[in-house]
Amino acid sequence: MFNQGGLSLDQAPPLSVVLRFFVTASIFGILLGLFLLLQSLNITTLSSYSTQLIVIHTLSLGVMASFMLGALFQMLPVLAGVVIKTPTTKAMMVHGLLTVGVLTQLFAFGISSNSLLYFLASAYLGSALFYAIYLMLKELIKIRTHSSSSKGILFALISLIFTVIFGVYLLLTEGGFINGIDFSQIKELHYSFALFGWVSLLIVSVSFQVIEMFYVTPSYPKSISKYLSVTILGLLLLKTILILFGYPTTLLTITITLLFLAYATVTIDRLTQRKRPVADATVWFWLLGMALFILSMTITLIGSFLTISSTLQHLSYIAFIGFTLSIVFAMIYKIVPFLTWFHLSNQGYMEAPMMHDVIHPKKAKIHFYIHVTTIFIWILTIKLTILGSLLLTISFSWLFYNLIFAIKKYVYTQKHCEKIEW
Amino acid sequence: MIISSYMRAEHRECDELFTSAEKSVIEGNFEQAEKQFLLFSNDTLTHFKKEEEALFPTFEEVTGSSEGPTRMMRYEHEQMRGLIGKMAGAIENKDKDAYLSIAESMMILLQQHNMKEEQMLYAMCDRTIPQDKKESIIETMKTIEL
Q: What residue ranges of chain A have pLDDT lower than 50?
């Protein structure tokens, strides 16, 4: 099967498909920052368990899942050569259900006695995510000759299936609908598939092509691009069996972390060998992301051998969050300016703004400085602080502003510039 | 895989020339940048011409279709020709920011185009075109000039 139109006019999804997810994700990011600010000022009366659940799921679903699903709607045609037909309607459905689902879930965690909210959250989130998985997987499995990226995305989506199944089980247990005998085991599997499978595998798969494409680097070694994602998924499936039958899984965790450490080291090596000399903030975001990934995986590795303090444990979480956000920001500052120019140019606007007019690299650099400071403060303090929360709010607000600026440029060009009919 | 290796080598040469021109623009050395850019645009446009005049027609003849992948590749060539023109204008005006901005779009467009060709189209050419014909295409391509 030939990818006839990765970026062709007919098959690239409209800009609104991607941007609705990105804008929503940055709003969730701002809300998260504000929530943490209230928490750091001791204004709310939530239990630490509820706070933890709210923070984790605003990040993983409101922010990350929105970013990643938006990016997938856009990138599947380019990276995997598959096209989702009528993407606008389908993306609207996924986006709507996901947003309502996340909000319902957050309220459920906040008002933990309300079982109806837990039920609604699992229904909305389950349908949003399963629908998105169905739309993408049914196209991906048709591919005859897979690239390392398309195969990796397929495995990331399979990991998401497990994440959602276990997540729904946990929500229904919290809501009192099922007795949840294996609650702690399922919880461990839920976050293993979410973090190592869905999030990490998706980043890994996308990087196999975009690092080379954006920065002109040598390709990844075949041993990594061909076998890493399938091995990680295999190990996660094995972990599921071992956990459910009560066997120890330390060896599997060690193997997974070692594999990711090798991947991150190779990625840094590839980026330092890039031929393009541009001192681009997106390269910095990638390098920072990989360094944080190495930090997080190293602590996880140490934790497999020794008992580590809760401070180190928290450092590992912060580093992992920093890793995922860095990569997401790196992608956005390439994708959004390019797509804005690309769509306008294909629509026949000869004066379509170039990438730097949509989001200037200086703006991306400013975001990088804010982001680095945010990570630095969180790593330094480990616990919740007013400064850390404030910086997180500023970081997402800056992204939100840049996205809105890009949208305004797009709309302005369509309204005021001359269009040539092909 | 003689088509793949010949064409892939040309892609890599164009990448080299692109990055050296970009480097000179970043350093503000427009005299050097102009020379390197000319090499890049010459090589890239000649490569497009080789595909459009020698490789694609043979592929279309063998597969019996001119509506498939080659049509899309020709369309993308046109898009990139437009960008090369704009890059030339930016070099002439010694406009660093404009050049880097257009170069950014060019690079993404070019790389995703190359990936599609290298991962799919060239492999299909190597599979479907008979060996003797492949050798004669390469000989023809070597003689094509801008």
A: 1-7, 9
